[in-house]
Every structure is written in C-alpha cells, then in structure tokens.
Amino acid sequence: xxxxxxxxxxxxxxxxxxxxxxxxxxxxxxxxxxxxxxxxxxxxxxxxxxxxxxxxxxxxxxxxxxxxxxxxxxxxxxxxxxxxxxxxxxxxxxxxxxxxxxxxxxxxxxxxxxxxxxxxxxxxxxxxxxxxxxxxxxxxxxxxxxxxxxxxxxxxxxxxxxxxxxxxxxxxxxxxxxxxxxxxxxxxxxxxxxxxxxxxxxxxxxxxxxxxxxxxxxxxxxxxxxxxxxxxxxxxxxxxxx
Length: 242
What we know:
This protein is of the alpha+beta class. It has 2 domains: 12-75, Orthogonal Bundle (Arc Repressor Mutant, subunit A), CATH 1.10.10; 90-238, 3-Layer(aba) Sandwich (Chorismate lyase), CATH 3.40.1410. 26% of the residues lie in helices and 31% in strands. The protein has a 6-stranded antiparallel beta sheet.
C-alpha cells in the first residue's frame, strides 16, 4: 500500500491569501466594496503587516482586488471599467472597444451533454442552464455564443430574466446571484461556419470563424460555465497581453 502523500507546505502569505479568499467567497466584502486595511487584516489574522501586504499583492495580481491610490483596496467588480473586457477579448480593428448588445435565441434547462459534463465536472443526471445568443457590435452580429451554466445558484435564473439582460452576464451573476467569475481557460481554433451558424451571423456558409471555447471558474477553481463563442473576424480580432 502506498504511503500517504506528505502535507503540502504553504507559505504564510499564501495561507492569508486563502483566508481572504474565503472571506470574499462568503460575501464578507461585496464586489466594489472596500476591504479592511492591511493593519486591520494583520491584527485579525495574527500576522505581520508585510505578510498581509504580500497576500493582497497576489490577489491583486490575480484580478480579485484593486488598489486605489489614497483610498485603499477594493474587491474587483465586473462593473469596473478595467474588468468589463477581461473575458471578452474580441476587439475592433479600428476604434475603441465597445460593449455589444445581446440577442437571446434560446434559454432553457437541459441535461448536460457528455462533453459539458466533462468540462464542468458534472454527474450524468445533472442539468445545466443552456443559453444561445448573438452578440451584436453596432449593427453587425459578430459572436454566436453557446453557454452552459452549472451550479445551484443558476437554478434561479429564468428565460424571462435573461431576455432583458444585456451582454454583461457576469455582472448580473455577481450582483444578483453572488457568483463571481474569477478565472478562465480558453482554447482557440479556426472552423468553417455551418449553414445555421452563417444565417445567425449574416455570413456565407463555409466562411471561416474563430471558435473560442472557455471554461470559467469561480472560487477555489470550481468550474461553472462552458462557453463556445463563434466569432466573425472580418472587422475584429482576438487581442491578448502576455
């Protein structure tokens, strides 16, 4: 019989990061809210201010907190200007990035297909909320989204509620459901548009599209969303900074 793995050593600042993360998950400090000062957090956790500062720096680098000069450190919200395009990486070839308008096509609860089960670590009997929509930039339909949402929190969403929602789903998930989309893993490939996809994106069948498949996670790496976006790149491109 194999011996159990030894406990993994975790630096103190990482332990404080985990403690702050638990507080964020519990909603102790809401999105957009001010967190306690480094001195207060040091007293709360019984560590040095330098240890707290390092933990906060890590969370800031991870995009969960934001420092504001002379004001303090705040919980990042999807309503923040710097966060609005964090996951939407498609940019116009010319001019500034703008928020698209969402046109809902389908919204219903379904049993998770096998590939969705694997991506979201679900059981065979689990259901998900399936959304299909088109994102319109100006007058042009540019992205065809297929979205699968897992988790108890999404059971409260209804087609009626989502029908009046703009493109900023993550902001609504955060403010109304308390679900914060934190991290994403993406895969990108080129595909040819089917006749149905071409009709929804106002292009010719067979035209090349950029398929962006994303698995989004919330606290502690819990996957809650699988999204497949088919993108027209006639006047847009995928932008990233490494």
